[in-house]
Amino acid sequence: MAIGTAATSNNLGESSIDKCVPEAKVISDTAGLEESKDNVGSSTSSPAIDPECLKAAISGDATSMHDMASQDPNVLLGTTAAGNTCLHISCTQGHEEFCKTVVVLKPSLLAAVNAHNETPLITAAKHGSRASLSLASLLLKFCQCHQLSEAITQKDKKGCNALHHAIRSGDSKLALELIKAEPALSRVPNNDQESPMFIAAVRNLTDVVGRLLEISDAAHGGSGKQNALHAAVRNGNPDIAKRIMEVHPWMAREEIGDDKPAATPMWRAVNDGKIDVVTVLLKYDPSLGYLMNREGSSLLCTAGRNGHVAVARELLKHCPDTPYCSETGWTCLHAAAYTDRIEFVRFVLGSEQLRHLVNIQDKYGRTALHLAAEKLNSRIISALLLHQGIDVTLISNNGQTATSVLTAALASRKDKDKDKDDDINAFWIPDSKATADSPGMDRGLLEAATSGKKPALHDPGLLLGRTVQGNTCLHIALVHGHEEFCKDILKLDPSLLCTVNAEGETPLLAAIESDNVYLASFLLSHCCRRHDDLDMREAMVRQDKQGCNALHHAIRRGHRKLALELIEKEPALTKAVNKHDESRTSGDPLLCTAAYRGHVGVATELLKHCPDAPFLDEKDGTTCLHTAVEQGHIKFVEFVLQSKELRKLINMRDSDGETALHYAIRKCHPKIVSLLLQCKAQLDLTMLDSNGNPPIWVPDDATDHAKTLNWGEVSMRMLKADPQDKGEIYNLIKTIKDQVTEKARKDIRTLTQTYTSNTSLVAILLATITFAAAFTLPGGYSNDAGSEGLPIMGRKLAFQAFLISDTLAMCTSLTVAFVCIIARWEDLEFLLYYRSFTKKLMWFAYFATTTSFATGLYTVLAPHLPWLAIAICVVSVLVPILTKLIGEWPVLKLRIRLLGSFESDLIDMV
């Protein structure tokens, strides 16, 4: 056949690429083309794909395909169970010659869609490899030649068109070609409300953003109700920000939706410290410096809270009278003092425009000095007191001066160590009356609930007071396991059982989550005795913010007897389903099941017979890659990333907008993170979840992770992969360090006791050994006349070295032992100094002890066994070095593995 000969010639030439398909060939499939135009996006029944045809598509064997098509032209119309034609399959493999042949033989396949509503163009663009993207450009030209505009603008089930995928893959050339071919592509957001412009801004594709801005009605929105300027700010890209401000300056004032704290791009730039972007925004619109968010906070307050001095200077440069105060009277100095930003405090105190803030009071009458005193921050207190205009006599609304606040804060720290058996500490007297307009918990009641001391109430209304998190005294006592306190409180006010905190937890839920099974059973019985009370019944079946009730928590935490008791006393608990749809049955794709168990061989066999086997769990949008990462199956992750059929999953998001990288970072799995980051060509590091957060912000237990080497390695790898996120990563690390430091301050007594006990034990042991060695000298003492009692080896150099090293070891060990005695028990800074100082002394004592051991034996053995004496000296000297090497090996191994990208700041917490 003439058609086949032309299609499979060695070079398709101008007739098939530059001039598309010759007229005769187009006519032969005119009906198919017209039909495909009318049915783009529709799902039509097609014959099953021929196994030989499928094999040819996977291998890229164009000759075999031509031979089959010459015998039966309809062989090209077969599809797999997922609706993929041979052209789809070949696009995922990147076989350009095969695709050219198929398009020449059957142009209508350009408009064919699979079960995911993907045309071959979308499939090629989505795959993201260099070969696939080049193939996508070729398919675009074919679609233009055949006037298949619907095939170009087709959207997949995620609402993404070819332009979305081209930009997501980072291919500016293909993206510009698509925009030129079909400008309408720029107007369509995907199901996550991400526009092509937003994705281009996230990916830092400046030229693509510039071209999209030339289209007047191009969409600009993004996930989390952000716009393209939000994305430019997040990346700290002043070039994109400049282009957007030139065309759409109003974007700088557009806030994130009502379901979040208001965040304009200007606010985001100030909050994240993106000084270059702040400069650009203020240059084009200086009035942005006067913006207040919906919470009534000014930009200077935001800069103060985060310690961004350079941003504050830029604001004052363009807007000398920019608001420095929030609607609550909270100034930028208050914000800096409260968040321990000493550099910003010094900047304010040294600024002619802001130094008067030192005595301004908020709506509670507190100055910055009050807040610094409450936080016990000595550096900020000192800086404020050194200011010439400070007024230390200012009184807050509750009648406290900064001095009294400081005294109370110091006393509250010492109260933890008072004798618990002292009768006077068993009672507390309220320091205020409970009123309707003062719902805060009384400090004395809070201390009593925490310690479990018996309350002596003069005003029972105080029991209704709450903490900032909405917890009542009953919630707090349950968490601490104070049984008698809970019983006494419930006698006074049983309605506390129905109270709910900010997390949607009743006291019953709080007790179960704290693993206080006995108290949970007691509360359950108390509720049952008042079962006629509708509020009590509601409290029993109440679900928290995650949709979990008491039965969910009891089962999840393994409390079998409590779970059975809950079912018996309130059967309605068994009918509840939480927000994750737990408690119902569902079917998972086979690939997801294989991923859950880590069965690479099973997945390989599945793809061998079904190259487009389902990989997506429709319930939550997770793929088999998400599942493998969640379960920590490294081999399966490697398999997915190396598979041509599955590597596109690397950027797919679940129903919460999270990619596999989000999962890997949340699981703190450095090996999987490393595997994902190695796929630089396909991986999009800038993908945000539904809340607009990048992957590095995922960990919800970052404080615990931050103290591990795994978290440090994950952070360093992310920093190397995406240097533009350096500010965000270090802000996160700073927040975590503050949390760890605060936790260390709370446990300072235990930490000090543990360290001093261990250190003093080793120090005393070394001192004992070296002291005894001084009186059992090598070689013994002389009995000769005139030299009685003198060391026999006294004139030998090795013996003198023994005496010196033994003396130094004993003295340094004794020094450390006695420093442990005078250690201060409640001073974190002293503990850090003490740890650093004693560590150096102990290492010196260790080295001196091994030296004295080596020189002592050398003195005795050298005259008769010199080789043994030298060997003992070498081993003894190497022992401290080997000890250091073994102790630091995990960190050294990490340093070697990461080489230049190692950041010691990311593994040093406190």
TrEMBL record:
Name of this protein: PGG domain-containing protein
User: From which domain of life does this come?
Assistant: Eukaryota
Q: What is the lineage of its organism?
A: Eukaryota, Viridiplantae, Streptophyta, Embryophyta, Tracheophyta
**Placement of ANK repeats on the sequence:** 364-397, 620-642, 656-688
Record-linked Pfam families: Ank, Ank_2, PGG
Intracellular or extracellular location(s): Membrane
Task: Recite the UniProt keywords alphabetically.
Answer: ANK repeat, Membrane, Repeat, Transmembrane, Transmembrane helix
Sequence ranges assigned to domain PGG in this UniProt record: 755-860
Instruction: Give the PROSITE patterns listed for this entry.
Output: ANK_REP_REGION (PS50297), ANK_REPEAT (PS50088)
PANTHER family listed in its UniProt record:
PGG DOMAIN-CONTAINING PROTEIN, PROTEIN PHOSPHATASE 1 REGULATORY SUBUNIT
Chief location bin: membrane
Which organism is the protein's source? Oryza sativa subsp. indica
| InterPro entries, sorted | Ankyrin_rpt, Ankyrin_rpt-contain_sf, PGG_dom
Topological relation to the membrane, as annotated: Multi-pass membrane protein
According to its record, what are the GO cellular component terms?
A: plasma membrane
| Transmembrane domains' residue ranges | 797-822, 843-861, 867-887
